[in-house]
Amino acid sequence: MTNHASRRAFLKRSSMLAMAGAAAPWALNLAAMSEAAASTATDYKALVCVFLYGGNDYGNTLVPTDSARYAAYAGMRPSLAYTQDQLAATVLTPGVALAGGAQYAIAPELAPLLPLFNAGKMGVMLNVGTLVQPTTKAQYTAGSVLLPPRLFSHNDQQSVWQSSSPEGATSGWGGRMGDLFESGNGNAVFTCVNVSGNAVYLSGKTATQYQVSTNGPVALNGVAKPLFGSAACSTALQNLVTASSSNIFENEYTRITARSLSAGGTLANALAGGPAIDTPFPAPGTNNLADQLKLVARMISTADAVGAKRQVFFVSMGGFDTHSGLATVHPGLLAAVAQALSAFYAATQELGVANQVTTFTASDFGRTLTADDGSDHGWGSMHFMLGGAVKGGRYYGTPPVVANGGPDDVGQGRLLPSTSVDQYAATMGTWLGISDSDLLTVLPNLGNWDASQRNLGFV
């Protein structure tokens, strides 16, 4: 900046925020430069992304149980495979059988999700992953088609999953969905809500993700309670950090701070006046994913109070980069996911909004099926969709051939996805009410699939 006085004032404000213990719940989005077409809605719907950071091991999440495919699975991970006796209680019985007699079980630790599948409230997405266009193994091997950038890289594939672009992307498809709906919400602030920090998934071109903690809005300590024991100091601080400025960067910073303070007060009041949730969740602090999803349920219960018609939420859990100790680490991770998802679905039932909330899992990538103590970075994976509107109790997509070097394997059991993230996302976008033409903007690779293949029909 050439204006040194403005720079000093900006730095002064920043240091005051630090001294006051500030935690600004807004992710600054300097890419918000385009106009979004408004979509209107009279009902309420919410989309909840559950992101499993590190790359979930698909092989020990959804396990083939028909004899030929189980034998191939067990042969590729002799020290890590579940036994068929361990899987007997969680074998899935779909309403529509898979071709060729293919059968699966969910991991024993995912047993709390079995009633949801059996009740038709949870579906299973087979072999979904990042793609630029439909791709065969021959095309992959020949390098004759565009492939997702920087395959097998954590940061880049997390970003491609969430945004269709590698690390450095400025907007994600959840945020771009939010762009279309924020003007139809009574308070645009609560369109895109992140309960786990910051993720490109919820950054839009115009929509900015609102970040909250598992307890609710993140307070600016010096304003939320007397600074240095003085209410006058708190008022002075609030005036300082929200005053407008002629400097573009300074003004944007204070505008966002002012908006977050206002939103925090609105949300705190709405949560205080919202209904109690009696559904039993794991004890606070014992399952962070469950804590995040309980806050999402509480926020959904306040949708009328804050004027929200469409909301997109993001929660996450880490620890899935299981290069070693998979047999001891992964079961605990899956148990936490199952407890959190089952409690959350029950809470939406209690609130009477189960049909209006669709939850789905996502992850960096799947992992190698060939494994010893742990598994390596992969590509395609298996995921779950749940909610009252989900046409569950069945599989979607194509079951991959389980074979080392087989037609769906690009090496060591790394699955070449048969279904793209864009198709997965477009199906949920259609349910939210996004038009076919707007989906092509939200999901830039979607146009590479025939129109008849874009909606997978699970919701």
From TrEMBL:
The keyword Signal applies. Residues 1-20 form the signal peptide. The keyword Signal applies. Keywords: Signal. InterPro entries: DUF1501 (IPR010869), TAT_signal (IPR006311). Coiled coil: none annotated. It holds the Pfam family DUF1501. PANTHER family: BLL7424 PROTEIN, DUF1501 DOMAIN-CONTAINING PROTEIN. This is DUF1501 domain-containing protein. It comes from Scleromatobacter humisilvae.
